[in-house]
């Protein structure tokens, strides 16, 4: 999902589905309410129980997507596109320009790139592209499209201005709205749906990249105020009740069903044999990771892979990214709501794969393989999986407020029970990111979306507080390289049986 876009490049709608065109100065006045349903407005879906293996998937969405009503398409376009603008609302034009490191991108670039996707893959084939001259600077990694501006130099793109990018968004949205209410083909509607899911991934990227940017400012600015105060008394995490899974044959992955979106890297559904194992009933906590640090975890090479130990020595790691200590030794964490004392029973985040693996070894456990994670989560949290499979208009009736709480915190929820569903932070697995048997990428340049990154990266599962809820499904596969720390990444332990 995310690693390709990060490192190489997870109200009432208008009648035609096009959002209004706010200026840069008006961005800060845009409604910013992560507790409402804007990010919930997704057509993405997956069930806990994988569909039986069937015909090989050749498209990331089923043709049934195109059978939705025009109103549904217009409302979804408006909901997703306006949410992205709302995420930029707390930011100044100056905040939207810088690039904190080569792996991150400026907010202005995210706003433009997600619009370029529609301009290139939906409007251009009809000869209606709004800004074809901008393709080189906002094309992320699609070699088949043409030249691309160097990724580490995105922060130097002072032109187009933020106002011009917002105007670009408005004009593209207007033409998409006309297409939706006009003669859009099923293929075009499917591409729009892919573009909206792609944009929802960038919504999480915006929050990740803003956090990294602000962490480099000595003033430690907050992206937004925390509306739900943390309980500093909640320092002791609850016990773990392992999810026991006997040895056997299981179906994993997804095949597209009518009207149900899945990314091509989730397909096709297929059978795997798993030996008996157990998965932790909750993610590991900050307090548990602090104990690893206090026991010399970053000073014991026997806990680390060779590459991991080299990274510790080279980078000087001694704690997760964004952790620090006050003068009196109190641990604190920097997040989207600013700097605050560390809360012991919150899920630990901003771990590299190397750190998650070393912590698991220190804990007498290991990282789960991705199919173990999928099967165990499906067994333990069927309600969570069913919620991802519902129409967005029905989804809030299941577990109301869960995602609202996460967004109000702009961070993970405290671990208050022994069994905690995924969705507060991405969970590292021990599995290489590789194609499933029978995997077939999309034809043409869109085939570069996932397939070409299936080398040298690791799979993560579950989703974070910043992930669009429709993307938090059991079959969803995120991926990063081993040393990535700025995503919202944590760990859930596993054991052999």
TrEMBL record:
Protein name in the entry: Iron(II)-dependent oxidoreductase EgtB
InterPro entries, per database record: CTDL_fold, DinB-like, DinB/YfiT-like, EgtB, Sulfatase_Mod_Factor_Kinase, SUMF_dom, SUMF_sf
Q: Which ranges carry the DinB-like domain?
A: 77-205
Record-annotated Sulfatase-modifying factor enzyme-like domain positions? 243-377
An MF annotation (GO) of this entry: oxidoreductase activity
Q: Which organism is it from?
A: Rohdeia mirabilis
Q: One biological process GO term for this chain? A: ergothioneine biosynthetic process
Q: NCBIfam families attached here?
A: egtB_TIGR03440
Q: What is its EC number?
A: 1.8.-.-
Catalytic class of the enzyme: oxidoreductase
Arranged from A to Z, the UniProt key words for this protein are:
Iron, Oxidoreductase
